[in-house]
């Protein structure tokens, strides 16, 4: 059994939940003129839909948005704070955001839910589902979807082999871990980790997989904007 690094929370200091939204990326694959999180989707900036979902979850004590230094495009709003401490990689932005949370008074064993700014279709219900599943877990976990498609491995633009999809999941966000545990994992992991769960795995722990939703996809490619817009508009009709 691996050693769990988070200490028990003192009875007089109830555990809190914080959302951390790294939003310092440029989104080059999206084909937009600027960072994709500022593109208009269903009448609002993409990132505003993301933030609305988190600010509607009553259990979340604070929402912190991490943008790149000098970025003044993130709109001000109620229920969240913007800090320009983004790093060169996602892992660096998250690490800087965790340090900022600590500076704001977050405790070592508070939970942090890290979420992609570009997953603008996440719902408060999905966030609550993750919290409910993880709040008594020793490690923490992430929203994810079982892989439904046939998986191919490529070599020089051709199929090298077909991989089994059994027991394979597509990682989503939020990903929820104790603050001190996640800080330690990111310090020890290589800077190339693409999500928080990978860093947690690298120190020998096994995050919990919590079923998410196919609609909780990350807006990545140009055609994703139209799909996200259609889903968002369908929710208001």
From TrEMBL:
Q: Which pathway does it serve?
A: Isoprenoid biosynthesis; isopentenyl diphosphate biosynthesis via DXP pathway; isopentenyl diphosphate from 1-deoxy-D-xylulose 5-phosphate: step 2/6
- Tell me its EC number(s), please: 2.7.7.60
Q: Does the keyword Transferase apply?
A: yes
Q: Where is this site: Transition state stabilizer?
A: 29, 36
Which positions are tagged coiled coil? none
Q: Tell me which Gene Ontology terms the entry assigns under biological process.
A: isopentenyl diphosphate biosynthetic process, methylerythritol 4-phosphate pathway
Q: Please provide, alphabetically and separated by semicolons, the GO molecular function terms listed in this UniProt record.
A: 2-C-methyl-D-erythritol 4-phosphate cytidylyltransferase activity
Q: Which UniProt keywords apply?
A: Isoprene biosynthesis, Nucleotidyltransferase, Transferase
Name the residues annotated as site: Positions MEP for the nucleophilic attack.
165, 218
Q: Does the keyword Disulfide bond apply?
A: no
Reactions catalysed, as given in the entry: 2-C-methyl-D-erythritol 4-phosphate + CTP + H(+) = 4-CDP-2-C-methyl-D-erythritol + diphosphate
- Gene3D superfamilies linked: Spore Coat Polysaccharide Biosynthesis Protein SpsA, Chain A
Taxonomy, superkingdom: Bacteria
List the InterPro entries hit by this protein, alphabetically. IspD, IspD/TarI, IspD/TarI_cytidylyltransf_bact, ISPD_synthase_CS, Nucleotide-diphossugar_trans
- Protein role: Catalyzes the formation of 4-diphosphocytidyl-2-C-methyl-D-erythritol from CTP and 2-C-methyl-D-erythritol 4-phosphate (MEP).
- NCBIfam families, A to Z: ispD (TIGR00453)
Instruction: Name the protein family.
Output: Belongs to the IspD/TarI cytidylyltransferase family. IspD subfamily.
What is the protein's name according to its record? 2-C-methyl-D-erythritol 4-phosphate cytidylyltransferase
Q: Name the source organism.
A: Ramlibacter henchirensis
């Amino acid at each position: 059994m691996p050693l769990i690094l988070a200490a028990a929370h003192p009875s007089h200091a109830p555990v809190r939940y914080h959302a951390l939204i790294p939003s310092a990326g440029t989104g080059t694959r999206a084909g937009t003129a600027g960072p994709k999180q500022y593109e208009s989707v269903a009448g609002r900036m993409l990132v505003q839909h993301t933030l609305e979902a988190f600010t509607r979850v009553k259990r979340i004590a604070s929402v912190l948005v991490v943008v790149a230094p000098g970025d003044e495009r993130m709109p001000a709003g109620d229920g969240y704070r913007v800090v320009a401490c983004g790093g060169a990689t996602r892992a660096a932005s998250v690490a800087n955001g965790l340090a900022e949370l600590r500076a704001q008074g977050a405790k070592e064993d508070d939970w942090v839910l890290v979420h992609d700014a570009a997953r603008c279709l996440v719902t408060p219900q999905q966030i609550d589902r993750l919290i409910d599943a993880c709040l008594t877990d020793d490690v923490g976990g992430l929203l994810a979807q079982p892989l439904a498609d046939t998986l191919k491995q490529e070599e020089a633009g051709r199929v090298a082999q077909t991989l089994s999809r059994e027991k394979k999941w597509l990682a989503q966000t939020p990903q929820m871990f104790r603050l001190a545990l996640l800080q330690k994992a990111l310090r020890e992991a290589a800077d190339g980790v693409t999500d928080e769960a990978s860093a947690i795995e690298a120190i020998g722990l096994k995050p919990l997989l919590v079923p998410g939703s196919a609609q909780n996809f990350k807006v990545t490619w140009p055609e994703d904007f139209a799909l996200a817009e259609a889903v968002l508009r369908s929710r208001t009709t």
